UniProtKB/TrEMBL annotation:
This protein's name: AtzE family amidohydrolase
Keywords: Hydrolase
A Pfam family reported for this protein in Swiss-Prot or TrEMBL: Amidase
PANTHER family given in the database record: GLUTAMYL-TRNA(GLN) AMIDOTRANSFERASE (PTHR11895:SF172), TRANSAMIDASE (PTHR11895)
InterPro entries linked to this entry: Amidase, Amidase_dom, AS_sf, Carboxybiuret_hydro_AtzE
Amino acid sequence: MRTAGEIAAAVRAGTVSARDVALRALAAIDAAEPALCAVTRRLGERALAEAGAVDAAVAAGRDPGPLAGVPYGVKDLFDVAGLPTTAGSALYADAPPAACDAEAVRRMQAAGAVLVATLNMDEFAYGFATINARHGTTRNPHAPDRLAGGSSGGSAAVVAAGIVPLALGSDTNGSVRVPASLTGLYGLKPTHGALPMAGVFPFAESFDDAGPFAGSAADMALAWQVLAGQDVGTGAPPRLARLGGRFRENTDADQIAAIDALAAGAPLLELPDIARARSAAFVITAYEGGALHREALARDAMAFDPAVRDRLLAGALLPRALYDEACAFRDAFRAAVDALIADHDVLLAPAAPCVAPRIDDPFITIDGQRVPARADLGIHTQPISFAGLPSLAVPLRRAGGALPIGLQLIGRRGGEAALLRAAAAWEERGLIGATVPVIEDVGEWA
């Protein structure tokens, strides 16, 4: 699969039809599934209808949009007209179908993109592993015996496998950035509230954001332009800083080396009260998730994924006073962080703390202790969500067939353009960049 930019240019020029591109993506899904376990629904009829509309626009001399004919998938919590929005749960498999597309999906279609699939996730987005009781565990295209990360693991996997060049996920505490890091992609969590969440099944609304995955900095900038309506533009060289303290612990050596090389001489900033921030984030997430599902849990708790059910039940039992205290601390924390980073455009930190864990041993080591990957892969992303800041996961270039791992480029509120410009500059210099296969023969995945 070529990049989104290449596909759109070829479709607009008439050198390839959107229908042929869609058919290739659908065939790639068929070849990859069910082994990859990334796709929950293959949307062949819709894809060919959308591709036909793009081809008709080209034939009539109209511009179909910046994503003309680009195939993409969405995490299975975005509303897709005519389908139940399941959020990865059997509980809603037979729910009434969505009356219309989520706003982010509508914007993608208006730009000429072609929706080919809904994608696997942790049930109700509660996890960092994409271990799903109904659909199975999504595999990492770089190492099929390892996790793809979560909760947007299906979205990451289809891009990392070269099936589509773009996919949409959601990020509450790291659910885009963690799988992007583990599968070697670019993944964006925008400033909280910057992208539309209408028609997206919530997890914890205090932190939920929609975000795209891409295989290149240019494709990520294109997705941002479509979803946010903002060009990346140009600007002065970014003022860099490195995050210290807990962000220098529980890391891969390559992450620290890359941070220090990319931001040589940049100041080392330490965010205040990181441990308390992460604890407060857990409280708010659990409380809001538990409140959202309280009635369904009371009605039929056994219908939930057992690993998710217990965490939601615990959240539903949290006292309101504890939640209010965590929210008050969040306001103070955000003000302190905003003041600390006011003179910097891009902060560098690790994304996931390690490479993808094995599926048959889904644990990681944090502070010398083995802990569940499903709960703790977000140790470096969760505090950034708590602060409400934009964060772009970028893939490191690693030699010798090493498994992927990534960094976070973190900005001030509304500072996505600076992050995207920095990523593009470092990619051009060969310092970062994804390794995504170009699939010309879908038999490569057979």
